[in-house]
Write a structure and sequence with these properties.
By secondary structure, the protein is mainly α. Helices cover about 75% and strands about 5% of the residues. Helix 2 packs antiparallel against helix 3.
Length: about 140
């Protein structure tokens, strides 16, 4: 399967993230890092059979939600102003605890749920075991 366009997108996102980091643009760096996670996950989910549309849509929704939370974190953080708290935590910490950490967990759960159907299907499991198991 040809992953060249997705891999090229990941390379462009990587170089853009590097440039944003060197320029001191933390928000752009964060969003480009999320774009790289989504693109590389898309490469990992591509199989000879196409991945389910719901998995790809979930991955895109994950990236969008992560970017919204990241932007909200930067929007609510004002070092010169009064401390903004959400649920007893400063805004940045609250976004990390209540938003970003659960999204990372959701990506792990998505991987676990799709492993048998999209990552290593039963026929490939058998081939893998036959090839690499000790006799």
């Amino acid at each position: 399967m040809n992953n060249t366009p997705v891999a090229l997108g990941g390379a462009v996102a990587s170089l853009a993230a590097l440039a944003a980091g060197l320029a001191g643009q933390a928000l752009a760096l964060g969003m480009l890092a999320v774009a790289m996670i989504v693109l590389l996950s898309a490469i990992g989910l591509r199989t000879p059979r196409t991945s389910s549309k719901s998995t790809i849509l979930t991955l895109i929704a994950y990236g969008a939600a992560f970017c919204v939370l990241l932007a909200l974190c930067f929007r609510l953080h004002d070092p010169a102003g009064p401390l903004t708290t959400i649920g007893g935590f400063p805004a940045g910490t609250a976004m990390l605890i209540y938003g970003i950490a659960p999204l990372g967990i959701a990506l792990g759960v998505l991987y676990g749920l799709t492993f048998d159907s999209e990552i290593l299907p039963l026929d490939k499991q058998r081939e893998f075991l036959k090839r690499f198991s000790k006799k």
